[in-house]
Amino acid sequence: MKQKNKRIPYLPLLAGTVLLSASTNVLAQAEQEWKGKITKSHITSTPYKIDYLKKAKAGSPNVVVILLDDVGFGASSAFGGIINTPNFEALANNGLRYTNFHTAGICSPTRSALLTGRNHHSVGMGLFPHFYLSADYPGYNGHIQPNKGTIAEILRENGYSTYQLGKWHLTPDEEATDLGPFDRWPSGKGFDHNFGFLGGATDQYKPDLVEDNQHIKPDGRHLTAQLTDKAISYINKQKSIAPDKPFFLYFAPGATHAPHQVAKEWSDKYKGKFDEGWDAFREKVFANQKKLGVIPANAVLPERNDFIKAWKDLPAEEQHLYARFMEVYAGFLEYTDYEVGRLVNHLKETKQLDNTAIFLIIGDNGGSKEGTEYGVTNKNLRFGAEGITREEYKKYILSEYDKIGTANVLQIANYPLGWAQATNTPFKFWKSDANAEGATHNPLIVHYPNGIKEKGEIRTQFGHVTDLLPTIEEITGVKQPEVIKGIKQDPIHGKSLVYSFGDAKAPEQHTQQYFTIFGNRAIYKDGWKAGAAHHPNTLETFGFSGEKLPVIENNPDKEEWELYNLKEDFNERVNLAKKYPEKLKELKALFDEDAAKYNIYPLIDVQHAAERYKIQFSNKK
């Protein structure tokens, strides 16, 4: 007689509670039928072996996803920037550069979309998993549910080892202690091992470090070095125990998010290289990008934003200070390139590089505006917020010159706003301004010797972080599962990029995409893009006036939408809203459809965050 696996009667219990360990292959157990024969005697019975651990197909590639933090499109030399990143360049020159790739515009939303292949609001990550930056609405609750499985869960169910290194930023605050629960730690989202930090930022020398399911004491070295060493140790152990088993490695260093910290040997390499300032930086990078072919030949550099001063008009002492901020940032990025190179070289030395697909995303959003006008080291960002006048803050920050980049700064240590626009060349605006390409347009490099014959070519098809999951599934030969650990899965939203690997002219397959962060919003459709700023960038919203933030009317219906034809005007210089009102109306309607589909409304903004922060602060008191 045939008999089903004995575990099956207990599977209905999984609907309410996960009873088995995170590494148990529940799906394999549930689907396999026992095909032996049972009699009273084992002599006349026929055994039948069930393999509970599914093996990957022979020759399956390793997969490495590298996600940097707060890096603008024009920072890295791999995409025309002045900051030296030779290892990124080597990957690009031996792989593909994607020049029309997009992120969600800020940390957690990008990471949730990347790992799940779904739009960030649809997985509850419209903003962040922190109390004061979340909200009790489906699109903003900060809790990724089991029906939104990750690429790590999928690959582990198909015979891969899975490792997470660095920034996670997807665990709700109330679940981030060593008591758990660990459902939304890396271990609960498909990773066999993890080493990094759960929050959005951490000190590079004194990180809030976790390994697997507990906090640990860091060793005092720069965090990026520790991450690389741990990644190499994972790979070595894998190779020694199961040399034919493939791995998935998600490497997400804190670089180059604040705090900007790096050894002087790296920052001093750039001594004097930014003395000409951010205006000259933008012009040089723009020319480099045209020469490299990563922007259109007929592109025009946007004007400097009105609230950034011309470099030539700044006092010498401010120029001296601001140049040092950028020297440190540049050293931080080049050092990160060095550590990525160390990881890649290890794969090459162990003869694994050719069969490893590497996806390097240079930034989870554009350059950060959080350094405001003068830059930040150790004091409050906003003048007037705690009785600090504009002139007092300026005097203070000028005295902090020698501390920039060292271990003696807070987690908010960041460069001035002028460098944010400069590193975002050729785009306008910056991180979290999801209505603009400066927030969401980031470089992607794909390096896969065994799978991509073309070397050093450019791809201009529209892409989005949700596309990484289906791309990885296609190159590994893994199908999107209907069920993970007994939970029926919601559909994914991304489109595989494999169609473009061998064909630079292939029609793009990801043809519509919304962007929304803090109420700033946009929608892309077949080359057209409409967007609206929820709280426009002004001197007041950056705290430049020396006064408290003004009360801004929160009425999305009164906000002005702009319209751009990105096929002809890729960096949004010519607003066509008045010329093509019907096209704008069409796109706004599409945005509303997506808002209903993906739980975008209500728009949650910084005003809401400030109110929630007051509640949290008063509760702690």
Describe this structure as you would to a colleague.
By secondary structure, the chain is α/β, with parallel strands linked by helices. The protein folds into 2 domains: 1-53, no CATH class; 62-447 and 456-612, Alkaline Phosphatase, subunit A. It has helices at 26-31, 86-93, 107-116, 151-157, 223-241, 264-267, 278-292, 316-349, 390-398, 417-423, 437-440, 468-476, 498-501, 581-598, 606-620; strands at residues 3-4, 33-34, 62-67, 96-98, 101-102, 161-167, 193-197, 210-211, 214-215, 247-252, 356-361, 444-447, 457-459, 463-464, 483-484, 487-488, 512-517, 520-525, 528-532, 561-565. A 10-stranded mixed beta sheet has the order 9-8-7-6-10-3-11-12-4-13, with helices on both faces. The protein has a 4-stranded antiparallel beta sheet with strand order 17-18-19-20, covered by helices on one side. α5 (223-241) packs parallel to α8 (316-349). The longest helix is centred in the middle third of the chain and has 34 residues, at 316-349. The protein is globular, with a radius of gyration of 25 Å.
